[in-house]
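yo

u said u wanted the structure for the complex thing, so here. seqs first:
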Amino acid sequence: MTEPSMGDELRKMKEEYEPLLPVEIKLIWVTFFAGIVLSVVLVLLSRSIG
Amino acid sequence: MSTPAELRRNASPIPAQQPASSSASPGFNEDWLAVCIGLFTFACALGLLFGADLMGWAVTTSVWTRPGKALATVSKSYIALPGALALLATYLFLLIVLTVGAKLLGANLTRFATGFTMVFFLSYLCWFLGSWAYIAATPDKRQALKIGWSLNLTNESGFIVALLAGLIIGNFLPRVYEFIKAGIRPELYIKTGIVILGGFLGITALDQRRLASAMLFQGICAIVCAYLIFWPIVYYVARRYFGFSREWAAPLASGISICGVSAAIATGSAIRARPIVPVMVSSLVVVFSVVELLILPFAAQHFLYHQPMVAGAWMGLAVKTDGAAVASGAITDALIRSKAFAASGLNFEPGWILGAATTVKVFIDIFIGVWAFVLAWIWSSKIERRQGDRVEAGEIWQRFPKFILGYVATFLIVLLIGTASPTLIPKVKAGMAQANVFRTIFFVMTFFSIGLVSNFRRLWQEGIAKLAAVYVTCLFGYIIWVGLLISWLFFNGMLPPMVKG
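structre next:
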């Protein structure tokens, strides 16, 4: 049996789509909003120090 | 048709660290080797503190119109040594040090020595060509060099020449590539260069402590930006719009957002992806780093020459792989300084733009282990629950990029010596100037090696187009602009000090 090539695997991936799990969605949004909040805090901090 | 096994063998760029062979010393890898070589060079250069000029024989290349006068020793103590012999001495020093390192890594010494010799001399030839006055001279130097025009690229254009030479060999001269393959170690070269760079940046920090503190602060912001703002969006785009599986999307997100090769490999093993996945992602990262390296420094020179620190931080945030990011910082440093001088008469001190790029990149690197740990925990406990899987805290240390310890050590040693005894600063500066010769050589070899491992045609043949589509969309549609915005927010209006006198 021959193994499929990477090209084939990548091409077929959309057809065999793994739906996003709730935990993935949580990971995405929690990290993103944490990033935005921390960035705002750091900008304010840098302005107040500078 | 290639099988994954063949792909692993053939398509591999140089991964983050070349795996040590079975005869390697246990626990010793390229990171530790970079620390050892960097610290050894740094320590020898500090011999000046004790009256011993141990590295003064190292070769430097000035901007030249007559090739015979281009090479010289870095220290006047060795002025009697002809330039060609200084080059030979520099080569022999590096050959011995790196061959000992290769022995510790368990490499084939004959092949390594042959490969390294070719990499060294071809890289140095590129550096030499890039120092030709018609390419390198800045407007203020033309009169002294008796030339009417020049491309104004400074002698750092040797980096671009090395990159292009590497690309030509890597893509069109496969036999030459095979012959020198054992000496192609871009990650080792850049990491060693970064360890040495720590001392050089320590000197600049001594002069301008307030600006140096601001740079460290920007480093913290870079961590937030790369891990919390870039990563989730790239992961979401790869999963939702391009239909990638989790196994592909996580290393891809880390490769594009964090620190290319190292992060892709750490993430791949954290989520238990097949080895081919991070290898393919790494290949893509290396190739796109080259594209960024050729575009972004020139874009920064054109649009950001009045905001040099923004430009430096932007290179650290937007350009992936340590080598390409720090290299972009070096080119941007040279290009912006020359443009700012030509356009506004502002003569910025060298090193600050490069320092901003390096600080940002190093701070991002520090957290790769922590991020891999977090992903390993989420994957094993929430996404792909496997019985008996336990994520050990020791993995954070295992994945920590150890060369950063060398960088921090050289930076702090210089800072401590200068703070404790200001009278020693001139000697430390002279020592760091000597160490900087080796830093430059490691950087040139990095550029050349990055070009060599970037085989565009082979990657295209292996069906990387879909991965590339995600990369292009996220990099040019999101990361570059958000990286610019973050850099702007923190460095807007901050200028490097001017050259005195």
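The longest helix of chain B spans residues 209-241. Chain B has one domain: 23-491.
cya
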